[in-house]
Amino acid sequence: MQLDITSGGGVFDIAALRGDGRGSFDEAEVKRVVRSLRLSDRMRLIHLILDSCLPGDISQMIRLLEKYAASTLDIVAMLPQELGAKILTFLTIHELLEVECVSKAWQAVVHHPSIWRQHCLELTWSDPTPLKWPHDANEWEPLYKALHHRERNFSLGLAQSVRFLRGHTNFCTTLILKGNRLISGSYDETIRVWDVAAGKETHCLKAKAISCLDFLPDEEVLVAGFHDVGRVHVYSTVTWTQLQTLQGHLYGIRSVAISKKYVISAGADKAIVCWDWRAGQKIVRFGQQTNLNIGVQIVDDETVVGVTVDGIVRTFSIRRKEMISQFKLNELAAGDPLTSARLSQVGVGANNMLQWFAAKGRQMTCATKNVILHLEWEENKKDKKKKSEVSTPTTENAPSPTTSSLRHSVAGRPSTSTSMRSPLTSRKSLGSVTPSRTAASPRASAASRLGMSPRSVNGSMDTEPTSIMTAPPKLLSVVETPDVAVGAVDPLKRRVSTATRFSTRAGADRRIFLSTYKERRKADSPTEEDVEPVTPSDVSLDMTTDIATIGGAWGVLADGPAGEGAPGIGRLPPDFKGLATPGLNPMSMALSHEEVVVGCADGSIYVMSFVGWEYSQPRDEEFLEGDALDEEQGYE
């Protein structure tokens, strides 16, 4: 039986109230029926029920109404917006977008600038330049949207623009990208310095055929290793003059690394040599290794890490002038049968030799043709205690190319409503975009993770040598890849760009890939009481990192010049036949928080920017692929 309770046609099913005839009701059915009514119909129904009650029921009803009124008190809406925003910072973006619909008061709190400021700081905690705060607090929302879109472009491999830098005439073998400055070395016997934003060459140094470079920004010192001569040159990038010539190898140089004290070189003669680059003196030569070194790394200013192509990692003490440990990459997962099986062939046989190597601070990335390994050296307890006793450096509001370029990309894009947060409070992880947070500032956390020493309270630097790394590095992630030949790493973002060999064979796989390693911690996110940064022992091994093929603007130019004039496409070189051609085989790569730079076999260099809105993935493809950013952040 149904009852028409209003002239407007609202219908109520009386059977829901009748129940089983013995005083029992299907409460879920009653709630469903009542909630399905319009507001005016519900009020009419309540009036009918109250009118049908006995006078003695009134006091009981008043008590019930008072109870429900107290239970539905909107505490957040009653608080000042600043305090309400502080509470909502503990929600993820997806949760914020859900609670935004509660009421207009909640919507206003969700869009409070302090929440957006928090999200912006989280997304840029690992950027090399501090985030410049906008003059208008209302600009935090569109700024966050642009930052989020940048990270999403990287996640999906959507290059927004491609620009060419022309100058080299032979293999571009090495690239170093520091902010807006790009340094390239080539077999054409030149080192060139570029202004990436302007797309212009600013300096050119004549040298021999260059095989490797390293740069020390604090000292403005550049070190170059030669391909066919066993010498290393040290240059000043202030005066653009040669400071030192370091000669100690029989054959060409394969890798160099520089610190404030030392230059380390690894030669084709299988030796590693340590120099005092200021005095030009050789300190120690670590004799022939079992195989060629693919890379060297300086850790804690006193320890050298050398990695050979057969997957053996050796550590050397400069102070003690001896090797202190040796590990095999294929034995680092001995306690895990599945991982051990996947790594068993690393360094075994010609097809499983290491192809490229990158390192920064305590982080290290090694790659064969089919596997990328992310590793990190653990700190001893003494190191941790020192870091907990020093204060956290503050973030300066220095101009940031990140902010300016992002703000420019937002200008031509209409803003949409989204969500917000407050500065540097702990809460749930934002997933693939948001890094793990600690009580320390994000930038201090990044420094400690890379093994950089923060300043003490009185401003002095702790120069005491730290751990000597006698234990093997911690294996953080294993990423399976196609047949890659070259790559680069952004250590702060934990992002990797790799490329296959663009061979002349018909049907060859000619692609460039991106992947971002996301720390998977054994415990929940830290609280404000946590005082120590995340260490490798706190992180579980990740075997699920996705890898994306770069498309967007790169895809437009992959097969030829037909995309000339398309959005984000700069002026093309003469006789351009496409990016996915053997002539533009990637020989070197560099990676920043906004760009991927590729040096090619014909000497060309092109810069792919991931800031902008020019290219996007079709919505149906995003849904099918389960885009992690949209799933975890709920923001678009």
From TrEMBL:
Residues 73-119 form the F-box domain. Residues 434-449 have a biased composition (Low complexity). Keywords: Repeat, WD repeat. SMART domains: FBOX, WD40. It comes from the Eukaryota. Signal peptide: none annotated. Residues 380-389 have a biased composition (Basic and acidic residues). Residues 390-407, 414-433, 455-468 have a biased composition (Polar residues). One of its GO terms (biological process) is pyrimidine nucleobase metabolic process. This is F-box domain-containing protein. It comes from Tulasnella calospora MUT 4182.
